[in-house]
Amino acid sequence: MGIPEPSISADEMRAWAALFETSNIVQYAADRNLRDSVGLTLAQFEILLRIGEAGTEGRRMTDIADSLTVSRSGLTYQVGQLERKDLVLRQPAPDDDRSVIAHITPAGLDLLREGIPGYVDLVREMLFDRLSHADLMTVTEILDDVRRQLKEQPKRSTYRRARRSVAQAGADAGAAAGAVPITE
What we know:
It contains seven helices and three strands. The chain has helices spanning 10-38, 42-53, 61-68, 72-84, 106-126, 133-151, 166-176; strands at residues 59-60, 88-93, 96-104. It has a three-stranded antiparallel sheet with strand order 1-3-2. With 184 residues, the chain is mainly alpha-helical. The radius of gyration is 21 Å and the shape is globular. GO terms for molecular function: DNA-binding transcription factor activity.
């Protein structure tokens, strides 16, 4: 059985591959750089950056999740990691018992100040230095328009995991235990 034929054109596939691969290459390099320089993953650094941008007010966890398009549970885990490193502090929102506000600590601000220059230099070298200003503006306008349209859809942080049916859970458990399915 071969690979199914894509239902997109060769030009569309080429554009998708260029966007996807470029993003992955730059993100991987930034992740390695940040792990080596400040001991945080790219995801953790981006979260810390979003919290730091809010200043002394802090930022609601749901707003951070929505701005980074991550799940609430994933964000909670990562912020917990940052909190254990004394880089952030979570507190209940004064105006909403259900909301939590994340605040950056002085140590978190120091870490951002240490990490941002190398992060910016890496992104500049790997991406911006390879584009003319006109190309940069064209790419930015196109992706801004696409992003704006995509952000009109339900936020990822509001998605809930689909619950598996009892029958599916039983089948999964049987397969994990090495059971052979009975067929008629």
